[in-house]
Specification:
single chain; 125 residues; 8 helices; transcription; Tet_transcr_reg_TetR-rel_C_sf; HTH-type transcriptional regulator MT1864/Rv1816-like C-terminal domain-containing protein; transcription regulation
């Protein structure tokens, strides 16, 4: 994610790439994706999702501000993008979208890519 966030591409492209990267990770490594959010297992370990999440949200807000200077609250729009993308990733990691979107597993990736694009675009309009 750091590579995508700090890349030389325009902010809008980096937002899209980060969203696709996140969902791609969830699809490729669903068990790891689920483990990251198992707060019950992390208790007492010193790991805090906030340590990862807050800088991610700041980076998202900066990219939103750069990609869509007219938005009223870049942090809020960054959060909205990420909640949409996280929801898509959660569904993709569990293949929950498969019966909803298509019966063909090969078509799932195309549908998920489209959902990711729409989630990002909706907050930058």
């Amino acid at each position: 994610m750091e590579r995508v966030f700090t890349g030389p591409q325009p902010a809008r492209e980096r937002l899209r790439a980060a969203a696709h990267e996140y969902v791609g990770f969830a699809q490729a490594r669903p068990e790891m994706f689920r483990l990251i959010f198992r707060h019950d297992l992390h208790r007492g370990s010193g790991y805090s999702l906030r340590v990862v999440w807050l800088p991610l949200l700041d980076a998202m807000a900066a990219m939103v501000a750069d990609a869509a200077p007219a938005v009223d609250d870049p942090r809020e729009h960054g959060l909205l993008i990420w909640t949409h993308v996280h929801g898509i990733a959660t569904f993709a990691a569990g293949l929950t979208l498969e019966p909803v979107l298509t019966l063909e597993p090969a078509g799932l990736d195309t549908q998920i890519d489209s959902l990711v694009e729409k989630a990002v675009r909706a907050q930058l309009a």
